[in-house]
From TrEMBL:
Residues 180-199 have a biased composition (Basic and acidic residues). It comes from Streblomastix strix. Residues 115-328 form the Peptidase M48 domain. This is Putative farnesylated protein converting enzyme 1. GO terms for biological process: proteolysis. Residues 6-95 form the CAAX prenyl protease 1 N-terminal domain.
Amino acid sequence: MYMSSALILHIPLKYYYNFFVEQKYGFNKRTKLVFFKDNLYIVLITTLLLVISFDFLVWLIDLRLFSEYYWISAFAIFAVFGMIITYAIFPVFIKILIGSTVPLQEVDIDAYTAIEQLYQKCGFNTKKVLMSLRSKRSTHANAFVMDMFGVKQVVLYDNLLQLAGIDTNANKVKQLQNQDLKEQTDDRSLQTDKQDGRNNELNQSRNEKLVIKDPKVSGIEKIVAVLAHEIGHQKYWHTYKLLVFVLVAVFFLFFIFSQLKKTDFFAIIFGFIGEIGEKIEYNQEFVNLFGIFVAIKSHLSLIMWIINILQRRLENQADQYAVKLGYGQALGNFLISMSKENLSDLNPDPLYI
């Protein structure tokens, strides 16, 4: 409930950020209804996963497998359980949040062919290249490659493709044209008015197409360059390295938990043991787990700073992989354009990044 309460209390701040800050600069595309639906979904799913995980963890600890080394067996089983949630269950929920997806070959066959050629060159075999209709929620552009335990797929945001000069509205024009043909069979007395309105929509769509054809950044090569960077993460096993980093950190936390068994540190802090030794009945494992969770939460900024330093090095390594493939110039230009489009800080403080 602690985490759920924190998420709920954070919603007003997210609302202000989305509908005042983001909207002021033209980034927010979500309606208020979609905003509250997304956040309700996040709170419910996060609460469900946390309750299941926490109860499972307490149950594991109560089993006391391998006697005094129970915390090692609990860590091993919980690590497997966590990976199943992270890499098998959680991506299903993420798909709902990133919006509807369509196969890229149905949007632009040339872009799909270029990406497929890159994958053949890098030995990254997947036919699942998707375009996410993310522009319905935000104008921020992004892309990601998933390659974990045999699951491979690529997701490109439609606004990223538009920034690169790829027309993602081609199907819209076809639908309008088909609708025009259907309307020709309607009452002749209304045909002129309907055709005029339909022509206006077609002209608007064509104008959008012309804008896309004269973009701030053009070329399928730049999309390929971004994906070359993403493949660099897979080639250098960055996802697995981060996983090992997390597992080592979790192992350390389990060790700390095993040592807390010998003390009443958190029980005193939370008031289960008074100043003169009076006690309120409590579950020591539960109190210690909750205490560790609160301690991590309170030091999250420091932890994220360390993780960001590690991630920055991995990002630079992925950039170098794209450079080796000959996409250095294209990647650099596109990243600068994306940063400007997203109003990112091009000269951030070293401590911040």
